[in-house]
Design goal:
- With about 575 residues, the chain is an alpha+beta fold.
- It has 21 helices and 28 strands.
- This is protein-disulfide reductase.
- One of its GO terms (molecular function) is protein-disulfide reductase [NAD(P)H] activity.
- Its EC number is 1.8.1.8.
Length: about 575
């Protein structure tokens, strides 16, 4: 069998008998144990489905393939053959029991392995589609099923090209109908299952809410609030959810508590719209105007910050909001930032309250951070060092910790390591400050000047690159630092050789930003660079020839990494590199 398969890749057409049979077997099986002769597939299109029960993406994709398969049963000659990558017969049987199609018996590992090699299967799920004559139509069946669903049939290159042209035509002549209606569906649904014709939504402002409803995002309650306010006011608008979930029972349970409309779960239009609107983040809320044209690609942030005031999400409304924000920034004071209703104080780690009024006239850093966040813990020693250096020179300086910790205990533990002030854990000001300064990732440092106006939201980077020398974080100070570096660079050698990079010379180069391959610290301004190898050293690392210093730096890197691995991000956040982001 394996020898037969090795000869096939040279051919454009496959013989199903040779492909799917062995010397002992000329049949495939159903999940009830019934045998089906391979010769019965003659004249049919066949999808070879490489999959396994242990594979998460496979578990997500299989229901989509089942849906398409069942829809095609009534009017097409299409069959699927499961080629399992499961590790034991019990797992195979359990997974196969959810499939309405055929399979190669699990016991025939030789045929299964041969097909893997023949079709160069490097990842699963993988779906190869053959035409009625055994000719390979595509090895991108998974993508086609996800994006096109039953509309992709008969899965020929011509059909896919036709669908792409239709999409381009739909973009040129976009309407609500072209966005939401498919060949098999002209309605959306309510949470009670009632169908609402898309035609009834024409002429309204429509928000397309792309969401994973089973993932509880803090944005959803805010959107519910805005929806109910606008409906109460009689505004001519509606929300249509575009669910990206793959488990129907969980979706139905969550959808019950939502007041708006939705596309049906697993509807192929959901995947089409992900591609159509080039979705890159969740949540995303696309605004479709009364004329069916796209007004805005994503107003999720505007809704989060401004709520109902952002409606109707037109360019004129956003210009109006920006003008109000500009005036707000121009009149900003420390008290307008940190005082809210009866909350007019911050606390020391001894619990003593400090009135915000006592901090007026000082340079303030707002430190958004959390104990569960590895980049935050890695950055903290650097900030503490800079804090003490700055305080020694200027007492009119303070840091205020704004926590994203999970609970009071975590907050207390983390805050106890800090020499500065904090907003109490659970304080409502944390949310308003995060919105005001558009906090999407932590750690983040916002510098507030003596007048109460924002100096920069990038103080974390300045501390990382320059330490206490960056104080007071103004543009003028940064220009002074740049001039200092230029004068220092004039005295440095133009090229050096270093024990950490023996292959090539390192050339003194002006850099916007880089990561030092010696101490693993961030750098900017000047680097000793090997462009060919993309290898950077801080001048302070490049101009010392002490291997033990480098060893110590590597030990420090290892210690930090080890500590980071012990912590998990808070739910709703994900960590990437040196920042943890809101998911």
């Amino acid at each position: 069998m394996e020898d037969q398969l090795k000869e096939v890749p040279e051919l454009t057409t496959h013989d199903l008998q040779s492909l799917l049979c062995s010397s002992e077997r000329d049949f495939l099986i159903r999940n009830n144990g019934h045998q089906v002769k391979v010769e019965s597939l003659k004249g049919k299109k066949v999808g070879l489905y490489f999959s396994a029960s242990w594979c998460g993406p496979c578990q997500s994709f299989t229901p989509k393939l089942v849906k398409v398969y069942n829809e095609l049963l009534s009017y097409s000659k299409f069959e699927v053959v499961f080629v399992s990558a499961d590790e034991d017969n019990e797992s195979f049987n359990s997974y196969f029991s959810k499939m309405p199609w055929l399979a190669i018996p699990f016991s025939d590992s030789e045929t299964r392995d041969g097909l893997d090699k023949l079709f160069d299967v490097s990842g699963i799920p993988h779906l190869v589609i053959l035409d009625e004559n055994g000719k390979e139509l595509t090895n991108e069946g998974v993508e086609i099923i996800k994006e096109r669903g039953v509309e992709g049939y008969p899965f020929t290159p011509e059909r896919i090209a036709e669908l792409k042209e239709q999409e381009e035509e739909a973009k040129r002549n976009q309407s609500l109908k072209s966005i939401l209606v498919s060949q098999s569906r002209d309605y959306v649904i309510r949470s009670d299952g009632k169908k609402v014709p898309v035609v009834e939504l024409e002429g309204k402002t429509i928000l397309l809410f792309f969401s994973l409803v089973t993932y509880k995002h803090a944005f959803t309650p805010k959107l519910v609030e805005v929806y109910r306010e606008l409906r109460k006011e009689g505004e001519n608008f509606e929300i249509v959810m575009i669910p990206l979930d793959d488990e129907e029972p969980s979706f139905k349970k969550e959808f019950e508590g939502m007041p708006w409309l939705s596309l049906p779960i697993l509807d192929t239009t959901c995947e089409k719209l992900v591609r159509y609107f080039e979705l890159s983040a969740l949540p995303t809320v696309v605004v479709i105007g009364p004329d069916g044209k796209t007004l805005h690609p994503n107003v999720a942030e505007a809704i989060e910050e401004h709520g109902r005031k952002a409606y109707p999400f037109t360019p004129e409304k956003f210009a109006e909001i920006e003008e109000l924000e500009k005036k707000k920034r121009e009149t900003q004071t420390l008290e307008s930032v940190l005082v809210s209703e009866n909350c007019n104080f911050v606390i020391g780690n001894d619990g003593v309250k400090v009135q915000v009024s006592e901090l007026v006239g000082k340079n303030i850093l707002l430190y958004f951070s959390a104990h569960w966040c590895p980049p935050c813990r890695a950055f903290l020693p650097k900030l503490i060092e800079a804090y003490h250096e700055i305080k020694a020179k200027d007492d009119k300086f303070e840091v205020i910790f704004i926590s994203s910790d999970r609970d009071q205990t975590s907050f207390d533990e983390f805050f106890s390591t800090m020499p500065w002030l904090a907003i109490p854990f659970g304080d409502n000001r944390k949310g308003s400050l995060s919105r005001l300064f558009k906090i999407k990732g932590i750690p983040m440092l916002v510098a507030i000047g003596p007048t109460g106006k924002t100096v920069t939201t990038e103080a974390r980077e300045l501390i990382t690159y320059h330490g206490a020398d960056a104080y007071p974080f103004t543009e003028e100070r940064l220009k002074e630092i740049e001039e200092q570096y230029k004068k220092m660079a004039e005295e440095w050698p133009k090229k050096v050789r270093h024990a950490l990079h023996k292959e090539h010379e390192l050339v003194l180069t002006e850099r916007v930003g880089y990561n030092c391959d010696g101490c693993n610290g961030m750098g900017r301004g000047w680097s000793f660079l090997c462009k060919e190898c993309d290898f950077d050293l801080h001048p302070k690392c490049a101009l010392v020839d002490k291997d033990e210093d480098m060893d110590n730096a590597n030990e420090i890197k290892g210690d930090v990494k080890g500590e980071d691995e012990e912590k998990n991000p808070k739910e709703g956040w994900s960590c990437d590199g040196d920042v943890c982001y809101k998911a």
